[in-house]
Amino acid sequence: MYKSGFVTIVGRPNVGKSTLTNQIMGEKLSIVSNKPQTTRNNIQTILTGEDYQIVFVDTSGIHKPKNKLGDYMVNSATESIKEVDLVLFLINPCDEIGRGDKFILEAIKKQKAPVFLVVNKVDENSHEKVAKTLDMYSKEYDFAEIVPISALKGKNVDTLVRLMVEKMPEGPQYYPEDMITDANERFIVAEIVREKTLKNLRDEIPHGIAVDIIQMKQNEKGTYHIEVDLICEKDSHKGIIIGKNGASLKKIGETARYEIERFLNAKVNLKIWVKVRKEWRDNNLLLKELGYKKMK
Protein backbone atom coordinates (compact mmCIF):
# COMPACT_ATOMS: atom_id res chain seq x y z
CA MET A 1 0.00 0.00 0.00
CA TYR A 2 1.42 3.37 -1.06
CA LYS A 3 0.79 6.30 1.32
CA SER A 4 0.97 9.97 0.51
CA GLY A 5 -0.22 13.28 1.86
CA PHE A 6 0.45 16.91 2.70
CA VAL A 7 1.95 18.15 5.95
CA THR A 8 2.17 21.73 7.17
CA ILE A 9 4.52 22.94 9.87
CA VAL A 10 3.17 25.84 11.94
CA GLY A 11 4.56 27.78 14.86
CA ARG A 12 5.63 31.16 16.08
CA PRO A 13 8.55 32.92 14.35
CA ASN A 14 11.99 31.51 15.01
CA VAL A 15 10.99 28.19 16.63
CA GLY A 16 12.90 26.16 14.03
CA LYS A 17 10.42 25.32 11.26
CA SER A 18 12.89 25.73 8.42
CA THR A 19 15.62 23.95 10.37
CA LEU A 20 13.28 21.00 10.88
CA THR A 21 12.35 20.92 7.19
CA ASN A 22 16.01 20.94 6.22
CA GLN A 23 16.86 18.19 8.72
CA ILE A 24 14.06 15.96 7.43
CA MET A 25 15.05 16.53 3.81
CA GLY A 26 18.80 16.38 4.31
CA GLU A 27 19.03 19.41 2.04
CA LYS A 28 19.16 23.14 2.69
CA LEU A 29 15.92 24.12 0.98
CA SER A 30 14.46 26.63 3.43
CA ILE A 31 16.24 29.78 4.47
CA VAL A 32 17.60 29.56 8.02
CA SER A 33 18.53 32.54 10.18
CA ASN A 34 18.43 33.58 13.81
CA LYS A 35 16.20 36.50 12.80
CA PRO A 36 12.45 35.85 13.23
CA GLN A 37 9.98 35.89 10.32
CA THR A 38 12.64 34.70 7.90
CA THR A 39 10.47 32.49 5.68
CA ARG A 40 8.17 34.55 3.45
CA ASN A 41 7.00 32.03 0.87
CA ASN A 42 5.50 28.58 1.35
CA ILE A 43 8.12 26.23 -0.09
CA GLN A 44 6.88 22.76 -0.93
CA THR A 45 9.47 20.10 -0.22
CA ILE A 46 8.91 16.47 -1.12
CA LEU A 47 10.11 13.47 0.90
CA THR A 48 9.79 10.20 -1.00
CA GLY A 49 10.39 6.73 0.43
CA GLU A 50 9.87 3.25 -0.98
CA ASP A 51 6.17 3.21 -0.12
CA TYR A 52 5.32 6.81 0.76
CA GLN A 53 5.55 10.44 -0.30
CA ILE A 54 5.12 13.38 2.07
CA VAL A 55 4.79 16.92 0.71
CA PHE A 56 5.76 19.59 3.25
CA VAL A 57 4.50 23.15 3.15
CA ASP A 58 6.93 25.40 5.02
CA THR A 59 5.15 28.47 6.38
CA SER A 60 6.00 31.89 7.72
CA GLY A 61 5.88 32.20 11.50
CA ILE A 62 2.47 33.35 12.69
CA HIS A 63 2.82 36.79 14.28
CA LYS A 64 1.06 40.14 14.59
CA PRO A 65 1.54 41.81 11.19
CA LYS A 66 2.90 45.35 10.96
CA ASN A 67 2.52 45.91 7.21
CA LYS A 68 1.04 44.37 4.06
CA LEU A 69 3.94 41.93 3.77
CA GLY A 70 3.20 40.83 7.33
CA ASP A 71 -0.49 40.37 6.46
CA TYR A 72 0.50 38.18 3.51
CA MET A 73 2.83 36.06 5.66
CA VAL A 74 0.25 35.45 8.41
CA ASN A 75 -2.61 34.76 5.98
CA SER A 76 -0.42 32.34 4.08
CA ALA A 77 0.54 30.49 7.27
CA THR A 78 -3.00 30.18 8.64
CA GLU A 79 -4.41 29.12 5.26
CA SER A 80 -1.83 26.33 5.08
CA ILE A 81 -3.46 24.66 8.10
CA LYS A 82 -6.54 23.93 5.99
CA GLU A 83 -6.88 20.98 3.61
CA VAL A 84 -3.77 19.11 4.73
CA ASP A 85 -3.47 15.57 6.04
CA LEU A 86 -1.37 16.41 9.09
CA VAL A 87 -0.29 19.50 11.05
CA LEU A 88 2.99 19.73 12.93
CA PHE A 89 2.70 22.38 15.65
CA LEU A 90 6.28 23.26 16.51
CA ILE A 91 7.03 24.91 19.85
CA ASN A 92 9.98 25.47 22.17
CA PRO A 93 9.96 24.58 25.89
CA CYS A 94 8.39 27.39 27.92
CA ASP A 95 7.07 28.37 31.34
CA GLU A 96 3.67 29.47 30.04
CA ILE A 97 1.72 29.42 26.79
CA GLY A 98 2.14 32.79 25.10
CA ARG A 99 -0.44 34.73 23.12
CA GLY A 100 1.10 33.68 19.82
CA ASP A 101 0.78 29.98 20.58
CA LYS A 102 -2.75 30.45 21.90
CA PHE A 103 -3.64 32.09 18.58
CA ILE A 104 -2.22 29.11 16.68
CA LEU A 105 -4.06 26.67 18.96
CA GLU A 106 -7.36 28.39 18.16
CA ALA A 107 -6.63 28.10 14.43
CA ILE A 108 -5.75 24.42 14.83
CA LYS A 109 -9.02 23.69 16.63
CA LYS A 110 -10.98 24.81 13.56
CA GLN A 111 -9.56 22.15 11.24
CA LYS A 112 -10.01 18.38 11.10
CA ALA A 113 -6.55 16.99 10.34
CA PRO A 114 -4.60 15.30 13.15
CA VAL A 115 -2.04 17.49 14.90
CA PHE A 116 1.37 16.51 16.26
CA LEU A 117 2.85 18.65 19.02
CA VAL A 118 6.56 18.81 18.22
CA VAL A 119 8.69 20.23 21.03
CA ASN A 120 11.96 21.52 19.63
CA LYS A 121 15.28 22.37 21.33
CA VAL A 122 14.83 19.76 24.07
CA ASP A 123 18.63 19.42 24.20
CA GLU A 124 18.91 23.06 25.24
CA ASN A 125 16.39 22.86 28.10
CA SER A 126 15.99 20.95 31.36
CA HIS A 127 13.89 17.80 31.60
CA GLU A 128 11.66 19.62 34.11
CA LYS A 129 10.95 22.49 31.70
CA VAL A 130 10.22 20.10 28.84
CA ALA A 131 7.88 18.04 31.04
CA LYS A 132 6.06 21.19 32.21
CA THR A 133 5.62 22.29 28.58
CA LEU A 134 4.18 18.92 27.55
CA ASP A 135 1.74 19.00 30.46
CA MET A 136 0.52 22.53 29.70
CA TYR A 137 -0.10 21.92 26.00
CA SER A 138 -1.69 18.50 26.54
CA LYS A 139 -4.40 20.22 28.58
CA GLU A 140 -5.16 22.62 25.72
CA TYR A 141 -5.62 20.13 22.86
CA ASP A 142 -5.84 16.40 22.24
CA PHE A 143 -2.74 15.96 20.08
CA ALA A 144 -2.43 12.82 17.97
CA GLU A 145 1.25 12.56 18.94
CA ILE A 146 3.68 14.50 21.12
CA VAL A 147 7.28 14.29 19.91
CA PRO A 148 10.27 15.97 21.63
CA ILE A 149 13.10 16.70 19.17
CA SER A 150 16.20 18.69 18.41
CA ALA A 151 15.77 19.90 14.83
CA LEU A 152 19.33 21.24 14.71
CA LYS A 153 20.98 18.02 15.89
CA GLY A 154 18.46 15.62 14.36
CA LYS A 155 17.42 14.04 17.66
CA ASN A 156 14.16 12.03 17.29
CA VAL A 157 13.60 13.40 13.77
CA ASP A 158 13.60 9.86 12.33
CA THR A 159 10.92 8.94 14.87
CA LEU A 160 8.88 11.97 13.83
CA VAL A 161 9.09 10.95 10.15
CA ARG A 162 8.01 7.39 10.97
CA LEU A 163 4.97 8.65 12.91
CA MET A 164 4.06 11.00 10.05
CA VAL A 165 4.17 8.16 7.53
CA GLU A 166 1.85 6.12 9.77
CA LYS A 167 -0.69 8.97 9.70
CA MET A 168 -0.61 9.45 5.93
CA PRO A 169 -3.63 8.14 4.00
CA GLU A 170 -3.39 5.74 1.09
CA GLY A 171 -2.71 7.79 -2.02
CA PRO A 172 -0.72 8.34 -5.21
CA GLN A 173 2.83 9.51 -5.80
CA TYR A 174 2.28 13.20 -6.57
CA TYR A 175 5.81 14.05 -7.71
CA PRO A 176 8.69 12.16 -9.39
CA GLU A 177 10.77 10.31 -6.82
CA ASP A 178 13.90 12.38 -7.54
CA MET A 179 12.10 15.71 -7.10
CA ILE A 180 12.74 17.32 -3.70
CA THR A 181 11.17 20.76 -4.13
CA ASP A 182 8.74 22.58 -6.40
CA ALA A 183 10.62 25.86 -5.96
CA ASN A 184 12.60 26.85 -9.05
CA GLU A 185 16.32 27.58 -9.07
CA ARG A 186 15.91 31.37 -9.25
CA PHE A 187 13.77 31.36 -6.12
CA ILE A 188 16.25 29.28 -4.14
CA VAL A 189 19.18 31.45 -5.31
CA ALA A 190 17.29 34.55 -4.15
CA GLU A 191 16.65 32.90 -0.78
CA ILE A 192 20.34 32.08 -0.37
CA VAL A 193 21.30 35.72 -1.03
CA ARG A 194 18.65 36.90 1.43
CA GLU A 195 19.84 34.47 4.09
CA LYS A 196 23.45 35.66 3.82
CA THR A 197 22.25 39.26 4.01
CA LEU A 198 20.25 38.50 7.16
CA LYS A 199 23.26 36.91 8.81
CA ASN A 200 25.59 39.80 8.03
CA LEU A 201 23.46 42.82 8.92
CA ARG A 202 22.17 44.57 12.01
CA ASP A 203 18.86 43.53 13.55
CA GLU A 204 16.96 46.65 12.48
CA ILE A 205 17.56 46.16 8.75
CA PRO A 206 16.78 42.56 7.64
CA HIS A 207 12.99 42.65 7.35
CA GLY A 208 13.24 45.69 5.10
CA ILE A 209 15.23 43.66 2.59
CA ALA A 210 14.14 41.81 -0.55
CA VAL A 211 16.07 40.11 -3.34
CA ASP A 212 15.22 40.41 -7.02
CA ILE A 213 17.04 38.17 -9.53
CA ILE A 214 17.60 40.41 -12.55
CA GLN A 215 19.49 37.86 -14.64
CA MET A 216 20.44 34.20 -14.30
CA LYS A 217 22.10 32.64 -17.34
CA GLN A 218 24.37 29.66 -17.88
CA ASN A 219 27.07 29.85 -20.58
CA GLU A 220 28.41 27.10 -22.82
CA LYS A 221 31.06 26.20 -20.21
CA GLY A 222 28.40 25.68 -17.55
CA THR A 223 29.15 28.83 -15.55
CA TYR A 224 26.18 30.76 -14.19
CA HIS A 225 26.12 34.55 -14.48
CA ILE A 226 23.72 35.93 -11.88
CA GLU A 227 22.80 39.57 -11.32
CA VAL A 228 20.86 40.53 -8.22
CA ASP A 229 19.17 43.66 -6.88
CA LEU A 230 19.26 43.79 -3.09
CA ILE A 231 16.34 46.04 -2.18
CA CYS A 232 16.16 48.03 1.04
CA GLU A 233 13.72 50.63 2.35
CA LYS A 234 15.96 53.49 3.49
CA ASP A 235 18.91 55.43 2.10
CA SER A 236 20.68 55.01 5.44
CA HIS A 237 20.38 51.22 5.12
CA LYS A 238 22.13 51.21 1.75
CA GLY A 239 25.39 52.41 3.28
CA ILE A 240 25.19 49.83 6.05
CA ILE A 241 24.58 47.01 3.56
CA ILE A 242 27.53 48.09 1.41
CA GLY A 243 29.76 48.70 4.44
CA LYS A 244 33.08 50.52 4.73
CA ASN A 245 34.94 50.23 1.42
CA GLY A 246 32.26 47.73 0.32
CA ALA A 247 33.36 45.17 2.93
CA SER A 248 29.86 44.12 4.06
CA LEU A 249 28.48 43.65 0.55
CA LYS A 250 31.63 41.76 -0.44
CA LYS A 251 31.14 39.33 2.47
CA ILE A 252 27.48 38.83 1.55
CA GLY A 253 28.45 38.14 -2.05
CA GLU A 254 31.26 35.72 -1.19
CA THR A 255 29.23 33.62 1.25
CA ALA A 256 26.20 33.60 -1.07
CA ARG A 257 28.26 32.62 -4.12
CA TYR A 258 29.85 29.70 -2.23
CA GLU A 259 26.46 28.27 -1.27
CA ILE A 260 24.88 28.94 -4.68
CA GLU A 261 27.75 27.03 -6.32
CA ARG A 262 27.09 24.09 -3.99
CA PHE A 263 23.38 24.21 -4.81
CA LEU A 264 23.81 24.51 -8.60
CA ASN A 265 26.92 22.31 -8.66
CA ALA A 266 28.53 24.81 -11.02
CA LYS A 267 30.78 27.86 -11.08
CA VAL A 268 28.96 31.13 -10.40
CA ASN A 269 29.72 34.77 -11.19
CA LEU A 270 27.53 36.78 -8.83
CA LYS A 271 26.97 40.53 -9.02
CA ILE A 272 24.89 42.33 -6.40
CA TRP A 273 23.59 45.89 -6.55
CA VAL A 274 21.87 47.66 -3.64
CA LYS A 275 18.73 49.64 -4.52
CA VAL A 276 16.43 51.74 -2.32
CA ARG A 277 12.66 51.25 -2.72
CA LYS A 278 11.06 53.20 0.10
CA GLU A 279 8.30 51.38 2.02
CA TRP A 280 8.28 48.49 -0.47
CA ARG A 281 6.66 46.23 2.13
CA ASP A 282 3.49 48.33 1.91
CA ASN A 283 3.53 48.67 -1.89
CA ASN A 284 1.25 46.05 -3.46
CA LEU A 285 2.76 46.47 -6.94
CA LEU A 286 6.32 45.95 -5.70
CA LEU A 287 5.26 43.03 -3.51
CA LYS A 288 3.72 41.29 -6.50
CA GLU A 289 6.79 41.99 -8.63
CA LEU A 290 8.94 40.41 -5.92
CA GLY A 291 6.89 37.24 -5.90
CA TYR A 292 4.30 37.78 -3.19
CA LYS A 293 1.47 37.03 -5.57
CA LYS A 294 -1.36 36.42 -3.10
CA MET A 295 -1.64 40.02 -1.94
CA LYS A 296 -5.19 41.34 -1.77
Helix and strand layout, with pairings?
Layout: E1 3-10, H1 17-25, E2 43-48, E3 52-58, H2 68-79, E4 86-91, H3 99-108, E5 115-119, H4 127-138, E6 145-148, H5 157-167, H6 185-200, E7 210-218, E8 224-232, H7 235-242, H8 247-264, E9 268-276, H9 284-289
Helix pairs in contact: 6-8
Relevant terms:
single chain; globular; nucleotide-binding; GMP Synthetase, Chain A, domain 3; rRNA-binding; Rossmann fold; alpha/beta; cytoplasm
What does this structure look like?
The longest helix has 18 residues, at 247-264. It is built from nine helices and nine strands. Mean pLDDT is 80; it is low at 30-41 and 60-70. It has 296 residues and is α/β, with parallel strands linked by helices. The chain folds into two domains: 3-167, P-loop containing nucleotide triphosphate hydrolases (Rossmann fold, 3-Layer(aba) Sandwich), CATH 3.40.50; 185-290, GMP Synthetase, Chain A, domain 3 (2-Layer Sandwich), CATH 3.30.300.20. Monomer. It is a peripheral membrane protein. Keywords: Cell membrane, Cytoplasm, GTP-binding, Membrane, Nucleotide-binding, Ribosome biogenesis, RNA-binding, rRNA-binding.
